[in-house]
Write a structure and sequence with these properties.
With 159 residues, the chain is an alpha/beta fold. The protein has a single domain (19-156), classed as Endonuclease, Chain A (3-Layer(aba) Sandwich), CATH 3.40.960. It has four helices and six strands. It has helices at 7-15, 23-34, 83-106, 127-139, and strands at 40-41, 52-54, 59-64, 110-115, 144-147, 155-156. The chain has a six-stranded mixed sheet, sandwiched between helices. Helix 2 crosses helix 4 (127-139). The longest helix has 24 residues, at 83-106. The relative contact order is 0.15.
Length: 159
């Protein structure tokens, strides 16, 4: 299947996609700030440069884009063009995500992943619910949690 835009236009569109300060990340940061949590951003000292680092709680938060990190949800679809490239790219991201989580846990950091589909799209959750789940996790002793959009089952803990 052919791409519907030129290669130059596609390159321009892809270069406009940000890795930091995305809309879902800003929603979470504003919510944490409103709940009086203080945090650092994109710490280069930790594996994977987590989006949000809560030193007091020894916890990190990743706000992952469903496409870039291969989340199995309604926002993710495998591209129809350059299939081999995209499968290698996204599977590489998924492998790196698992390695980063493992490294952080070995260093006794707690890891929360908030998926983009929890914040936007037709299956999004109310922001208040996402922030309540986030705050409950931060204050808990749970080591890992994922929050994602959907019906009744919107969290997954591996504890």
């Amino acid at each position: 299947m052919m791409d519907i835009v030129t290669q130059e236009k596609r390159s321009e569109m892809m270069s406009a996609i940000r890795g930091k300060d995305t809309t879902p990340e800003m929603v979470i940061r504003r919510g944490l700030h409103a709940l009086n949590y203080r945090f650092r951003l994109h710490s280069k000292d930790l594996p994977g440069k987590p989006d949000i680092v809560l030193l007091k709680w020894k916890a990190v938060i990743f706000v992952n884009g469903c496409f870039w990190h291969g989340h199995n949800c309604h926002l993710f679809k495998w591209p129809k063009t350059r299939e081999k490239f995209w499968k290698e790219k996204i599977r590489g991201n998924m492998k790196r995500d698992a390695e980063v989580s493992r490294s952080l846990e070995e260093a006794e950091w707690r890891v929360l992943v908030i998926w983009e589909c929890a914040i936007k799209g037709r299956m999004r959750l109310p922001v208040e619910l996402v922030m309540r789940k986030c705050s409950e996790w931060i204050r808990s002793s749970s080591t890992e949690l994922e929050i994602f959009g959907g019906g009744n089952d919107y969290t997954q803990s591996t504890d």
